[in-house]
Amino acid sequence: MTQDIQDPKPVSPVQPIQLGPDDSFQFRCRKGIACFNKCCQNIDIMLTPYDVLRLKRRFDLSAREWIDRATVDFHMDGHGMPGLKLATKPGTRECIYLTPEGCSVYEDRPSACRYYALGLLSMRKQDSPGEEDSYFVVKEEHCLGHQEPQVQTVREYRKVQGLQPYDEANREWRRIVLKKRSGGPAVGKPSQKSLELFFLASYDVDGFRAFVASPGFQELFELDPALLHEIATDDEACLAFAMRFLRQTLFGELTIPVRQDAAARRLARYQEKVEAIERAAAEKRVAEQDRMYDSLDD
Ligand code: SF4
Ligand code: SF4
Question: Whose CA is nearest to atom 5 of ligand 2?
Answer without folding.
Answer: 36
